[in-house]
Amino acid sequence: MSYFGYDHENVEPEASSVVESLRSIGYSLETAISDIIDNSIAADASKIKLTFHWNEKNNYIKIEDNGRGMDEGELTQAMKFGSKSPLETRDPKDLGRFGMGLKTAAFSQARRLTVKTKRKNGNYYVRCWDLDIINETGKWTLLKKAYNEISLSSLGNLSEETHGTIVLLENLDRVVGDHYTPKGYNAFLSKVNALEKHLSMVFHRFLKGKNSIAILINGRQIEPWDPYLLDVDATQELIDEPFMDGNQKIKISAFVLPHHSKITKHQYDYGEGPKGWNAQQGFYIYRNKRLLVAGTWLNLFRKEEPYKLARIIIDITSESDFNWQIDIKKSTARPPQELLPEIKRIGLLTRNASYRTFYHRGTKVIGERNNQMKYKNAHLWEQIYKHGKSFYKINKSHPMLLKLLEDLSIDERLLNSYLSLIEENAPVNLIAYKPTTESTNENTTSEITKDQKNNLLNGLKDLIYAMRLLNYTDDQILYQLNNIEPYKHHPELVSLSLEGYYE
Ligand SMILES: Nc1ncnc2c1ncn2[C@@H]1O[C@H](COP(=O)(O)OP(=O)(O)O)[C@@H](O)[C@H]1O
Ligand SMILES: [Mg+2]
C-alpha cells in the first residue's frame, strides 16, 4: 500500500537531539565494550585487542579485531543509526540485533567514534562521527577521514593482520569526565579492572575450548570466568533439560555450587565472580553462547543467602530474541509467559538444593559430578510448547530406557511402539489444551482419591525398585521423583515410599 497519495510532509529527526538522547540509554562502560566486542565476534575475529590509553590531552579506548573487516559501502552502512532492521533474520552466530550497538555503545562513553577497517586484499577505509560536528551542522555529517592528526595516529594500522577493524573512542566524557587528575586516573584504572572481570564473565564460553578467541586488555590476555565451577568435583549438576519454545530449542542446566567447606579458599574466591556470591545467584541467560544476564531470579524469587549456591544456565538462540524481549544494551531479557511455570519449577528445585547444601543438610545431594552421567538426561518427559499449548514427549535417552535397549532379547520396535502409545495417551497430553500459564502449584498437595493414591504408590514402588536396581542413592531418587509428573505434586508420598512406609 502506498501512502504517497496522502497529503503529507516528511519530518526528519533532529540529528543532534537524537544523538544526544541516545547517549542516555543506560549503557555502562562494561555493557558498551561488550556490545562492540559482539561485532568483532560476529565478524569472525579470533583476537580482539583493547587499549585503554590515558593521556592528559588525549585519552582514548581502542578496540581492534582481526575479523573480516568491511568494504567502503559496508562501513558507511555500519555507521548509520539503524544499519540493519531488527526484523531481519540474523545468522545464528550473529550477536547483533538492532543495527544500533556500535553507535549507541560508543556514544554512551565518548563524543567521537572513528572506525577504520580493511578487508583482506582491500584498502583501508575510515569514517568518523563527532558529536560536536553533528551539533554544529545539525545534520548527520559523517567524516570520511580521521578527525585530526592525533586521532589518526591513535588509530594506527592493524598491528598484525591483513584484515580487521579498529574502533576508536575519543573524548571520553562519560568514562572519566574532565578530571585529568591523579584521582581521575585511578577512577579510570578501576573501571578498566571492573571491565576485565565483566568481559571474562560475559564471553567466558568464547575464551575457552575449540575455536576460542583471545581478548587482550593493554596487552594482557584475559582469562575466562566459569560461573559453575565445572572443574570442581563437588559442584552438583541437578538438571540438564532441553525443551522447546515454539520451534526454538532452549536448554536449561541447573547447578548447585559446593559448600565453602568443600572447596579451597582460592576456589571460593574465584567462585565469587565480578559481583560476589550473593549477587551471582540465579539464572544465567545466554544467547548464542554470549551471556546476557548473569544472576537474576527474574522477579520470581528474591536473592537470599541460602540460595547463593544456585546458578542456572538458560540457553536461547537469536531467533528467540523477540520472545525474550532482549533490549538494545543486551543487558536484560524476560522469558516468555508460557515458559514461566517451567522456569519457576526448575528455579525452586535448584534453590531447595542450594538451601540444603548451604546448611549442610542432606549433605551430598547428587554425588560427585563425575558420577553424575547416569543422572544426566534422567528426565522422563520433554515438554514442548506449540501455539501456546504444552505437550510432553518421552525422553528417549533416559538411562533406564538405554539400559533396557542394551538387552538384545528386547524387541526394540515393540518397545518403541509401546512408548509412543504411552506418549499419545499420556493424560498430560490428553488435557494439553489447558492453558500453559496455569501455575504448577509446587508445594501444595492436591486432593486425591484413595484410588489415585494407590495408583501413585504402585507407580512409585516400581520406579523406586528400578532406580535402586540402577544403583541410584536415595537422595538421587528423591530428587528425581520430586522432579517428574505426577509425583512432584506429592512430595510426602515420595518421601514416605522411599522410607518404606508403604511396604
Ligand atoms: N568489528 C566489526 N567488523 C566487521 N563488521 C562490523 C564490525 N562492527 C560493526 N560491523 C558491521 O556494522 C553493523 C552494525 O553494527 P551495530 O551497530 O553494532 O549493529 P548490529 O550489531 O545490531 O548489526 C554490523 O551488522 C556489521 O555488519
Ligand atoms: Mg552490534
Summarize this structure as a short list of keywords or feature phrases.
Heat Shock Protein 90, Ribosomal Protein S5, domain 2, 16 helices, elongated, seven-stranded mixed β-sheet, 14 strands, alpha+beta
Brief summary:
The chain has helices at 15-22, 29-42, 72-79, 101-109, 131-137, 149-155, 173-176, 182-202, 265-271, 340-358, 399-406, 412-425, 427-430, 450-469, 474-481, 491-498; strands spanning 47-53, 60-65, 112-118, 124-130, 164-170, 214-217, 220-221, 236-245, 248-256, 282-287, 290-296, 310-316, 381-386, 389-394. By secondary structure, the chain is α+β, with helices and mostly antiparallel strands.
What does this structure look like?
The chain is built from 16 helices and 14 strands. It is elongated and about 85 Å long. The strands form 2 sheets. Strands 4-3-5-2-1-6-7 form a 7-stranded mixed beta sheet, with helices on both faces. A 7-stranded mixed beta sheet has the order 11-10-12-9-8-13-14. A hairpin with a 2-residue loop joins strand 6 and strand 7 (220-221). The protein is α+β, with helices and mostly antiparallel strands and 503 residues long. It has 3 domains: 15-221, Heat Shock Protein 90 (2-Layer Sandwich), CATH 3.30.565.10; 236-376, Ribosomal Protein S5, domain 2 (2-Layer Sandwich), CATH 3.30.230; 441-503, no CATH class. Helix 1 packs antiparallel against helix 5, helix 2 crosses helix 8 (182-202) and helix 14 (450-469) crosses helix 16. It has helices at 15-22, 29-42, 72-79, 101-109, 131-137, 149-155, 173-176, 182-202, 265-271, 340-358, 399-406, 412-425, 427-430, 450-469, 474-481, 491-498, and strands at 47-53, 60-65, 112-118, 124-130, 164-170, 214-217, 220-221, 236-245, 248-256, 282-287, 290-296, 310-316, 381-386, 389-394. Mean pLDDT is 84; it is low at 361-374 and 433-445. The structure holds adenosine-5'-diphosphate (ADP) and magnesium ion. Adenosine-5'-diphosphate binds next to helix 2 and helix 4.
